[in-house]
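User: When convenient, might I ask for sequence and structure tokens for a protein?

AI:
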Amino acid sequence: MTITAGNVTDYDYITKDMLKVFETIQIQCVNYDKWNATQWAIAAVEQGLPLQEYSQTIGNFNQPTKELERLLLSGKVVIDNNEITRWCFRNVELKEDWNGNVKPVKRLQMKKIDGVIAMIMSLGGYLNNPFDNSEIFII
């Protein structure tokens, strides 16, 4: 995760940063939440990024959230020493519906969980469309 200058999202910076990664790593898919992202998605696809919409509903988040928890508890996924990632994980609570589906939510509005959401969306996209798992894959 990269912090950018200012208090608004710099979509050009994000796209350029992703394209740099795309040059060195074969990215299969970039999952994104379509809310307020139409113009960015159009521009990113035109520049060659393989985007896939990923709705942030509790139904979409249930399986990958539970799988990430399982992977963390089994030691198969380790949260790196990135302070932002650890801060995001500390801010997460799980919201459960009457069917036992879970989704991460913020404890407080001012606390951010974007890093956790990005991991879960990436894992969810992979679980929906798995590719050759002999490759290294980053969430």
